[in-house]
Write a structure and sequence with these properties.
This protein is of the alpha/beta class and about 300 residues long. It contains 9 helices and 9 strands. Keywords: Signal.
Length: about 300
């Protein structure tokens, strides 16, 4: 009985390329050499192994149905650090749906993107404020663009001058000019108070017509804080969430998020955001996306307080 010995396909990861450079996917096939005839038991073992590989391959093919995969996401990065580069980047990627990600420095914005894509450092995450200094468009699997926007100055007002003079105008240019944007994921550390800069920025975003989905990050940090405060994680989460909602007068869709993959909650939150990305990307405009998110939020409010609508 001949054992099934599939060839192994080695695919190199797409590297971050400068603006306008073509993305090249290089693949090589390594043929498997055949050794001496093996025993029936060994052949059966090889057949089982082959079936496992085929099952994994089938799962991978099934994974290709989604914009963002669970494995081997191919990412090309266009870093647009000037108005002219941004215009060129928008033009180059205008046929794909865009989901942009914004938030204060160190709120977990870039970590969220890396977690969604299952990449180590595609988005430049750092504990140093101002690591993202450009509008970084991440073309994912040639089907979607996830844009990492420069971080707002954090509460200690680091890089505030750079934000006012350069990064904010560049960000607003992208929001106004890129009609392919479907929605913004605004990432906010659930433990932080809302600053005046956040309120001002989100008012600017509202004027562009880009709808916002609020992502409350660092949720896993609440457990220790709740224990120190003598309360439960759920009670602390509710209290801090409501403080954010009141400060922003926000009634839209929100998601609690953590990048800790060891937690089932984190894996579920990733799937939830990816479902929203799929649904929003299937729409044709930011106006349709805004209506979609309003409908989702209304349903959630109705479900949370059914007595008011009976």
């Amino acid at each position: 009985m001949a054992a099934c010995r599939p060839s192994v396909l080695l695919v190199t990861q797409l590297l971050s390329l400068p603006l306008g450079s073509p993305a090249i996917l290089r693949a090589s096939v390594q043929p498997t050499s055949y050794g001496p005839r093996r025993s029936l038991a060994a052949s059966r073992s090889a057949s089982v192994h082959c079936s496992a590989i085929q099952t994994a391959a089938e799962k991978e093919l099934d994974d290709d149905r989604f914009l963002v995969r669970n494995v081997r996401n191919d990412v090309r990065v266009l870093r647009c650090g000037s108005s002219q580069m941004l215009e060129q980047g928008i033009l180059e990627l205008q046929e794909l749906p865009h989901i942009c990600v914004a938030g204060e420095s160190n709120a977990g914005k870039s970590s969220l993107i890396n977690h969604l894509l299952k990449k180590q450092n595609v988005a430049r995450a750092s504990s140093v404020a101002g690591k993202t200094r450009s509008v970084d468009m991440l073309e994912v699997n040639e089907r979607l663009v996830i844009t990492d926007l420069p971080g707002l100055p954090s509460r200690d007002h680091q890089v505030e001058r750079m934000w006012d003079s350069s990064w904010r105008p560049l960000t607003l240019q992208y929001l106004r000019d890129c009609r392919a944007i479907r929605a913004m994921l605004y990432v906010h550390d659930i433990r932080w108070k809302i600053s005046y800069m956040i309120r001002d920025f989100l008012r600017d975003v509202e004027e562009t017509g880009v709808p916002v989905l609020l992502v409350l990050s660092k949720d896993d940090k609440l457990l220790v804080e709740a224990e120190n405060m003598g309360t439960t994680q759920h009670e602390l989460r509710t209290k801090m969430s409501n403080a954010v909602f009141r400060a922003l007068s926000y009634q839209g869709v929100h998601i609690h998020y953590s990048c800790d993959n060891s937690l089932p909650f984190s894996r579920n939150a990733r799937r939830q955001i990816l479902r929203y990305i799929e649904q929003l990307s299937a729409l044709s405009s930011r106006e349709e996306s805004a209506q979609f998110l309003e409908d989702v939020a209304a349903k959630k409010r109705s479900k949370a307080s059914p007595g008011k609508n009976s």
